[in-house]
Design goal:
Blueprint (H helix, E strand, L loop, with lengths): L22 H13 L6 H15 L3 E7 L10 H22 L2 E7 L12 E4 L2 E4 L13 H4 L4 H22 L2 H6 L31 E6 L3 H6 L1 E3 L6 E3 L4 E4 L9 H8 L4 E5 L5 H11 L8 E5 L6 H15 L4 E4 L6 E3 L5 E3 L1 H17 L4 E7 L34 H23 L15
Parallel strand pairs: 1-2, 1-14, 2-5, 5-8, 8-9, 9-10, 10-11, 11-14
Antiparallel strand pairs: 3-4, 6-7, 12-13
Bound molecules: phosphoenolpyruvate and cobalt (II) ion.
Phosphoenolpyruvate binds next to loops.
Length: about 450
């Protein structure tokens, strides 16, 4: 394989590329972006990798969630605090229910670009480029709004900075205490979460801080590259736009630019795995993206849909198990369960989402693997975008507060209910999994299996 450089992706076919009319303007903007301070620290990235390695061993559980696509207009205190709150509350429920620590990763502070199936959108015979997320263009259906604008890259970086700054402020200021009204235990290995009747837990008294990591789809490689730098100690390169960037299902081609870029950065990375992935392709991607089988490096985020998971997931789990490589399996039960209502709105049914998760836990346990995380599109607000859940919106209610321009998100109540349902189920699947050799733990035996 050729030598990797932060620009070697530019020689590969680029899926979902952006065509800027003024290339010189783009280059000036990227130079400006590259000179700005990084959004996250390489030491935080390494810490997340260490925690994800623990999740691979079943000692932690990954909770990843946030908007399908963040809007610049949503860079306001309420939506940001709302997302932090729901993720931390879900984390509490999951930690208590499963007796293990939760890793909180937001789809936040950079989830500004979207892959699109169609390059153009047509209304009344007029075709314009599709809206690709606020990092690239604007949603209004005018030629001006839809033209990719390099200045949006800088605005995205600034929004990401403000969002992160606010999240840090909330966490430093003891936001967690405002959730339960008292100090909480985040260890997940004691039973007190929240600490009951004012008692402090024995293992981690008075824990009022929590770690929170950021993630987004690393779709726009110009943006990712501009913030990619060598680490402080050696020649390792980090993508410093987020702790945990992931490769989308539409940009994961093995000879493509995205895989080339991602193979050389040292961050822990995610890879979306959809229904068209074959076992051979997956093993080849694992080899390219994690050649040294580094713990915590690679999370496979599978997203098949309730109807397809039973057919699609087992051959992939078996293949990974046979090759003996270490991955973290995470289930995104959102992206394979999108449906259109009669009125043409995109929605997802709570029962289909939970149903896919149920099957995911069951399949991994059955095959001696561990499902170590979940990935949701959600918001802390009271939107009506997904149907179902106890007291949740019906199809007729969807128009009441449908705010997403792209995929439908679980609302606050639905997200909490989802966490409670997972907590109940994972207790069981962990007991079941303990009887089987976990994937990746017994590498020395892997050849004889
Ligand atoms: C997403 O996570 O918003 C997304 C587009 O997912 P996928 O790449 O799995 O389709
Ligand atoms: Co989405």
């Amino acid at each position: 394989m050729n030598t990797w450089t932060p620009d070697s992706w530019q020689t590969k076919p680029l899926a979902q590329g952006v065509d800027y009319a003024d290339r010189a303007h783009l280059q000036r903007t990227l130079a400006e972006l590259a000179a700005m301070p990084p959004l996250v620290g390489s030491w935080e990235i390494e810490e997340l990798k260490r925690q994800l390695a623990e999740a691979q061993l079943g000692r932690r559980f990954l909770l990843q969630g946030g908007d399908c696509c963040e809007r610049f207009d949503d860079c306001r205190p309420e939506p940001i605090a709302g997302k932090l709150k729901i993720l931390l509350e879900m984390g509490l429920i999951l930690a208590a229910g499963q007796n293990r620590r939760v890793i909180h990763v937001g789809r936040i502070a950079g989830q500004f670009a979207k892959p699109r199936s169609a390059e153009t959108e047509t209304h009344n015979g007029v075709a314009l480029p599709s809206y690709r997320g606020d990092l690239i263009n604007r949603p209004a259906f005018t030629a001006e709004a839809r033209a990719p604008d390099p200045r949006l890259l800088l605005r995205g970086y600034q929004r990401a900075t403000l969002t992160l700054h606010y999240i840090h402020g909330l966490i430093e200021g003891g936001f967690i205490k405002t959730i339960a009204g008292k100090p909480l235990c985040w260890c997940g290995s004691c039973t007190a979460a929240p600490v009951n009747s004012g008692r402090q837990c024995n293992c981690h008294p008075n824990i009022d801080r929590v770690e929170f990591f950021t993630s987004h789809e690393g779709l726009h490689l110009d943006y990712e590259r501009a913030q990619t730098r060598p680490g402080p100690r050696d020649s390792t390169w980090y993508d410093l736009t987020a702790h945990f960037p992931w490769i989308g299902d539409r940009t994961r081609s093995i000879g493509g630019a995205h895989v080339e870029f991602f193979r050389g950065i040292a961050n822990p990375i995610g890879l979306k795995v959809g229904p068209t992935m074959t076992p051979e392709e997956l093993l080849a991607l694992i080899d390219v993206l994690n050649p040294n089988d580094e713990p915590g490096r690679l999370t496979l985020i599978h997203r098949f849909g309730l109807r397809r998971i039973e057919k699609c997931l087992p051959p992939l789990v078996e293949a990974v198990r046979r090759c003996g490589k270490t991955v973290l399996w995470c289930c995104d039960p959102m992206h394979g369960n999108t449906q259109l209502t009669q009125g043409g709105l995109k929605t997802r049914d709570f029962n289909h989402v939970l149903g896919e998760l149920d099957r995911a836990f069951e399949i991994h346990a059955r095959l001696g693997s561990v499902l170590g995380g979940v990935h949701f599109e959600l918001t802390g607000e009271n939107v009506t975008e997904c149907i179902g859940g106890a007291g949740g919106p019906s199809e007729a209610d969807l128009g009441k507060a449908y705010l997403s321009d792209v995929d439908p998100r679980l609302n606050y109540e639905q997200a909490l209910e989802m966490a409670a349902s997972i907590a109940r189920r994972t207790g069981n699947s962990r007991k079941y999994a303990r009887r089987l050799p976990p994937v990746g733990l017994n590498r020395e035996n892997s050849n004889s299996q």
